[in-house]
Amino acid sequence: MKKSIFKASFEESLNLEDDGLVQYQNKDVFSRLEPYYKQGKPTIKLHLQSLLMTLLGPIFINFMFLVFSLFLHDSDPKDLTLAISKYPLLTADVYLVSFLIWIFIILIAKGIKRAYLLPYRLHFHVLTYLIWFCLEFNLLVIDVALPTLTNWIMLVLFVLLVLSGLLMLRLEISSLKNLMYDVNSAPILPNRLVKKLMTFGSGFLGFAVILNILLRRLPITFSTLVEGVGLLGMWIILNLIMMAFLIFMEFPCYLHAYYKWKYSEEYRDFEGKSLEEWYGKRYLKKHKELLEAKNEEKINL
């Protein structure tokens, strides 16, 4: 009988806390976000930081990607080191639609009011922005790569990236099943190996960026093909790192959050939190049935 990672019992879901990456996220990410909320409400400091980060990230950095794309396509091809495609993929319409989708996702997530889930909600906003950032970066790279490579080569690369992502997801699901149910459904990559691969990939990407800067300062002329292949290699590595980050680090943490939502009272008792600490006053005001159920339980005892 096949087991789903979304149908574990409370006791089985507790095994997720043994995952090294979940422990790291809970200790060094989500626990550090908790002080930004008081009784289930974000602090003024958090409001100001969120506004600043929104202006800096989605409003400024991602918009500058659009400006850079328009600048490249408005430039004289003779002034460009690398050729670009005739028709831009990153347009004002693409930016606007992406921005509206991002805002819509944030508004939907605002429906999550339980205090213990608020750090996850804030972190989720950052993740959706990173995905949008990578989307714009991908469109820019495709703009540059298309004149050098054929459409079929780009299609093959995309298929390979998708297959790589599906393989990572399958490995992670197998690992989670083994952790939650003690079922060895398929060979899996240990978390340590995944961490090493991510570290190596990040280091290699950083080295490639530094090497690219140094080579540009040297009096050496490289062909357009070599420069295009170098940029393409960095693009592939960046996409692989991003997929590994989302699948191996973020997915198990949000699976854990899902079970905290599904077994909210069981987890509250397990962590020894009061109703106000767990749900927040703001949430309890709209869900008085939790307080009533707690009072009835005390009377019965």
Provide an overview of this structure.
With 301 residues, the protein is an all-alpha fold. The protein is 74% helix and 1% strand. It has twelve helices and two strands. The protein has helices at residues 10-13, 20-33, 44-74, 92-109, 118-145, 151-181, 191-217, 224-262, 264-271, 275-279, 281-286, 288-300, and strands spanning 37-38, 41-42. Strand 1 and strand 2 form a beta hairpin. Helix 3 packs parallel to helix 5 (118-145), helix 6 runs parallel beside helix 8 and helix 7 packs antiparallel against helix 8 (224-262). The chain is flat, with a radius of gyration of 23 Å. The protein starts with 9 loop residues before the first helix and ends with a helix. 18% of the residues are buried.
How far is the first residue's CA from the last residue's CA? 40 Å
Residue fraction in strands: under 5%
The secondary structure category is mainly alpha
Q: Mean pLDDT, as a whole number?
A: 79
Task: Indicate the radius of gyration in whole angstroms.
Answer: 23 Å
Low-confidence stretches: 186-190, 218-223
Number of helices: 12
What is the H/E string? HHEEHHHHHHHHHH
Lateral strand order in the biggest sheet: 1-2
Net shape? flat
Helix content: over 70%
Please give the largest β-sheet: 2 strands, antiparallel
Number of strands: 2
List descriptors:
301 residues, 74% helix, single chain, two-stranded antiparallel sheet, mainly alpha
Compile the SSE list and pairings.
Blueprint: H1 10-13, H2 20-33, E1 37-38, E2 41-42, H3 44-74, H4 92-109, H5 118-145, H6 151-181, H7 191-217, H8 224-262, H9 264-271, H10 275-279, H11 281-286, H12 288-300
Helix pairs in contact: 2-8, 3-5, 4-5, 5-8, 6-8, 7-8, 8-9
